[in-house]
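pipeline/complex-builder :: batch 7 item 3
reading input block
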Amino acid sequence: MRLLKKAGNTIQILSFPDEDVEKGGYLIIEDRKAQKALIAQVIDIQFANVPGVMEEFLRQPAAEDSTSGEDVDPLDIMSHILYIQDARLLVCKIYGTVAEDGLRLENSWLPSRTHSKISRLPTESLM
Amino acid sequence: MDLSLNSMQSIKGKHFQPYEAEFPSFAAERPISSDPIRLHGKAFSTLLTPLEPIKDGTTVIGIDVSSIRVGETETGSICAIRGAIVWNEKQHYQYVRLGPFPFHVTEISRSEAPGEPRLDASSGHSVDPSTPVETQNHLCSLVERWIQAGVSFASSRSIILWDGSLTAGMPGNPVSAISHILRVARRNSNSVLAFSKATTIRFLGWKITDLALNQKPPCLLEVENLPLSISRTTSLLGRIFAAKLAEGGYSFRLDIDRALSREYCIKAVERLLGNELMFQGYPETLRLAHIYSTFTANDVLGIQSFLAAEYGLKVVPRCNIRKTLFGPFGTGYED
């Protein structure tokens, strides 16, 4: 998962198909350099705006179409292309910041896009 | 395939600057000229051949290959090539896509690329393709010739459509290779037709495709015996026509294997008309072959992801010097 955008108390996270995230789940965005972390809840899951997807779909033959075919792809590059096509955008609400002094209701700081580590946070850990 | 894998062996663990996977929006279609050239006189009417479609179940096969640069390494650039074969058998279209095949283009790999060496006109010595773009085009031509050779060998009594012309003698288009492919095609009773969307060949200053624009389709305008402006260093392996094949469609330069008789060439176009859909005067198989081989921005992202994962490339953001220096005014292509 990669942090994409932050506006107010909403953040957008790019997630790949093998990352198991559900709507309603909690995430922790840890910025180790800042020694702080954001806690956010996934409120919506959308398709990521991957460039070229429309062209890709337009050229794929529809099931009822009279066109059929196959890909000879010895390096299996197509699996990487499909993996990117299925990327998702997680829209999350920020609930607070975890710092050395504990949980604070603060969302004014900006975690690093490149250094932050994003992982799932079990709901029970918030209790 | 071996050429691709061998060229990629040298990049393991290197730094990689991917190109942005944002493509310019598709250009608006050029409207057909509203003021086409009007040709009068008996002389021109003798050059025109009206066509009658022949529906005989002939299979039509279209071949196209695309390439794209996906990024740079410390020692060169990486491009990817993909080919597509589309065939129409009794109005059922089928395709095979080959690739993508990534190639690492370096000074060394450029000199090792197979094919006939390009000769310097003044000294007669062989010279390497001078730029990575030329090498990319050269590799693209190699893959295209490989596919064309395979199709010519594996099919029979078919019409094989190439994208481009049957002009040989330029880098990547050696006369011997193209002549061999045409020979194999003829041996299997295939007819090779090459469609060019754009041509530089002119007659008295007019593009040959404009000469056919105002003629009643479907027709062929034979420009073979006209005094045309053609480079003398190239070899024309095809009989050149200007073809307008559908009402309201564009006209194209059409090259047909020169070793076939004039009558056989015309019959081949008539068989094409009778057995193939023509979209704006362009064969549907060739249009689909182009669509299936073309790289989208999504493809480029996928290839970049593959390169990083498979070869352990360290992805480094690409610095756009023009944008850095000129901000929003940093338009135009990077060097």
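note: Residues 1-58+74-104 of chain A form one domain.
queue -> next item
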